[in-house]
Amino acid sequence: MARINNRIRRLRFDHDEMTQEELAQRAGCTRQTIIALEQGKYVPSIELAFRIARAFGVSLEEVFQYEE
Amino acid sequence: MSVRTYNLWKIVIVIIVAILVGWGVNANNAFIPVPTVLVGGGVLLFLRSRVKEITTDERTFNIAGRAARFTLSFFVILAAAAGATLLAIGGGTTPALETVGFTLAYSICTLLILYFISYIYYNRKYGGKE
Q1: Is A23 on the interface with B (CB under 8 A)?
Q2: Of A25, A30, A45, the CB nearest to B55
Q3: Would you say B85 and B77 are in contact if contact means Cβ atoms under 8 Å apart?
């Protein structure tokens, strides 16, 4: 089964322990969505995925990985 | 205003509106419940506009959509069964049961018509042709 993993927790740590609230504000979503993403319980839309990647200043593939 | 503060105010306002509506209904006075609900709704909308944090996003819309769909399916099945039963039991003999049965049946029809209209609208809005 295909699965989309993400490195949001790691990237937050690398960006001076950015808080979930701060990332949520930068990406334009709720903190609950960031929590759900980090727990792997929610797969974001393409738009939100790009906004999260942009919040970290990295490419989409550095945040999200598609695994089969 | 934070979401936490807004939620606290929301609870307070809902309690006040419920008390006033209950009091107005008991007093058989329609001039109390209607303005109370309108003012309460207005105050809630005003307070919500002052919340700076993001309270809804694609995930909450997704959840709301799934919950609405489940609720619709559940209600339609339950109301159809109840309506058919009431019409079968009370049809021609007990007008009260028949009335409730028809009310449920028409409610289902209205809901399904609204559902199909909104489905067609959103399907066209998001590029569907059928």
Answers
A1: no
A2: A30
A3: no
Q: How far is CA A9 from CA A12, A13, A25, B38, B122, in A?
A: 5, 6, 16, 44, 35
Mean pLDDT of A2-28: 92
pTM: 0.75
Give per-residue pLDDT as tens, B104-125. Answer: 999 999 999 999 999 999 999 9
A25, A36, A47: residue with CB nearest B59: A36
Cβ count within 10 A of residue A62 = 13
Identity of the amino acid at B67? A
Closest-CA distance, A57 to chain B, in angstroms, reads 21
From B53, B54, B58, residue closest to A45, measured CB to CB: B58
> Per residue in B35-56, pLDDT tens?
999 999 999 999 988 888 888 8
Residues 45-84 of B with CB under 8 A from A: 53-60
How many residue pairs from chains A and B have C-beta atoms closer than 8 A? 30
ipTM: 0.86
Contact yes or no for B86/B101 (Cβ under 8 A) = yes
pLDDT confidence bin for A2, thresholds 50/70/90: low
Residue closest to A24 by CA, chosen among B1, B59, B45: B59
